[in-house]
Design a protein that fits this description.
The complex is a heterodimer of chains A (258) and B (201). Chain A folds into three domains: 50 residues, no CATH class; 48 residues, no CATH class; 147 residues, 2-Layer Sandwich (Phosphorylase Kinase, domain 1). Chain A is built from nine helices and eight strands. About 6% of the residues of chain A have low confidence. The longest helix of chain B is centred in the last third of the chain and has 22 residues. The radius of gyration of chain B is 18 Å and the shape is globular. The N terminus of chain B is likely disordered. The chains are: A alpha+beta (258), B mainly alpha (201). The interface between A and B is large, with 51 and 53 residues.
């Protein structure tokens, strides 16, 4: 078997889809050909990257419910914008005007986007096979790891304790910017802390929950509580399905108040 | 409000695309879509996210896919491959949407892209270890960006392959001959590797 033929069978071989004689011939070629062994290793790694580092996102619950209903024979939900173009254009214009007006007042849509993003990012952590890029041996190990990976230094005063052990950190994206991600545990629950540049984000003006010296918003979306606050140049989002009081407790620690 | 590329509902007859492989003479009993169609929702959504690059557009695309599937339920024959049929609708809906939107930077199909691509997948031996090292350092944003730079069909074949599609299912979904699937997949992965060298650096 030559290299071209062997490489043709590499993926099948890696997936155990080869049988008998061909399998043996591929194996014996790999045993004697270093270049093909490298190619085999690279292809395996590419599969691992695609499998483990792309988020294993699940469809949002609302989408699932909507489609479930439609499969049962109910009419589609009011997504008329795809079908009635004229109505949709007019409605879009009205909606856009209303939204623009609302944004001028207190930007509810923008902060909704932040809420949705926080929950999505948390889900990515939950469903990722490798949520943690740097294992935690404490904050003094995690924070230096971010140096060179971010264009800011995340200010986090808390490195985990028995109540909230820190699992580690990773770099993620929050909307259009990079975020330092810290992963904590609360009993069996995962809590994700995102720290990112606060500038230019549509922060809600309705921040009422005290977080250390700052004030934040506590909202719930798709079963997850999200506590978001801003301190200096940095924005913080804590996301989890734990009780909101636990989030506030952890926020206070992150802010160095406990 | 974001200027979303508008998906357009096509007639049910076109639900499966130009090369519908499914018999049209189907009794009324089989005209409804089996509930098993819901089993593929997560995979459809995942692939839609990587095709569109946005959560909201992925939701729209999946909604549109089920709209077409339900409307074209008569074309689905019990016993044939539901998964391949649904993903074929998803792919067609996505192509329709972005043909209209013209926002996607990649216009060509896999073959166009391959013609323009001068690199080969058989990397020189010396580069092997370096490439492996770089792949090991790839993070989520790198692989997402590299995938986004591929043509729709290249992205689709790589993602569907990772969803466990067989060669027959890939051929049905992408509307190509079974015999060409292996080489298409190899070429798409090859281009992805090239792109990852750029993004991962």
């Amino acid at each position: 078997m030559d290299c071209t033929e062997a490489r043709n069978h590499l993926l099948d071989s890696q997936r155990g889809a080869l049988t008998g004689e061909i399998h043996a011939r591929v194996d014996s070629h790999l045993a004697e050909c270093e270049a093909c062994r490298r190619e085999d290793a690279v292809e395996r790694e590419l599969s691992a990257v695609l499998r483990d580092r792309l988020p294993r996102t699940r469809a949002p619950e609302a989408l699932r419910r909507s489609i479930e209903k439609r499969l049962m024979g109910e009419p589609p939900r009011a997504s008329g914008r795809f079908r009635h173009t004229r109505v949709s254009l007019f409605a879009s214009a009205v909606f856009a005007a209303a939204a623009a007006f609302a944004i001028l007042l207190w930007k509810p849509h923008g902060s909704d986007a932040m809420l949705a993003e926080a929950v999505n990012d948390h889900l990515r952590v939950l469903y990722s096979d490798h949520p943690v890029e740097v294992e935690s041996g404490g904050i003094h190990q995690v924070k230096p790891w971010f140096t060179g990976r971010l264009d800011f230094a995340p200010v986090v005063a808390f490195g985990g304790d028995n109540d909230f052990p820190m699992q580690g950190g990773a770099v993620a994206y929050f909307l259009d910017r990079k975020a330092a991600t810290f992963i904590f545990k609360r009993r069996l629950h995962v809590i994700t802390l995102f720290v990112f540049r606060a500038e230019g984000l549509p922060w809600s003006a309705l921040a009422t929950h005290p977080v250390g010296g700052a004030r934040g918003t506590l909202e719930t979306s798709r079963g997850f509580h999200v506590l978001m606050w801003k301190k200096g140049d940095l924005g913080y989002a804590l996301v989890s399905d734990v009780d909101p009081t636990d989030l506030q407790l952890l926020a206070a620690k992150v802010e160095g108040g406990a | 409000m974001r200027a979303a590329p508008h998906l357009t509902l096509v007639a049910a007859a076109d639900a499966g695309g130009a090369n519908v492989r499914y018999p049209e003479a189907v009794s009324k009993e089989t005209a409804t879509l089996p509930r098993a169609a819901l089993d593929h929702l997560d995979a459809l959504y995942r692939v839609a996210r990587n095709l569109t690059g946005r959560d909201s557009e992925a939701e729209d695309l999946v909604q549109e896919t089920y709209t077409r599937a339900i409307a074209g339920g008569a074309q689905f024959t019990t016993g044939t491959n539901l998964r391949a049929w649904l993903f074929r609708i998803l792919r067609n809906a996505h192509i329709d949407a972005y043909r209209r939107a013209r926002t996607n930077p990649v216009h060509g199909g896999l073959d166009d892209e391959l013609a323009a691509d001068t690199t080969t997948t058989t990397s020189e031996p010396l580069r092997g270890d370096a490439e492996l090292e770089r792949l090991r350092g790839v993070v989520t944003t790198d692989i997402e960006a590299a995938l986004a730079s591929l043509s729709v069909d290249a992205r689709a074949i790589v993602l569907l392959d990772m969803e466990g599609f067989t060669e027959t299912e890939l051929a049905e979904t992408l509307g190509c001959a079974v015999g060409t699937v292996k080489s298409r997949l190899a070429r798409a992965r090859g281009i992805l590797r090239e792109r990852l060298r750029d993004y991962g650096s």
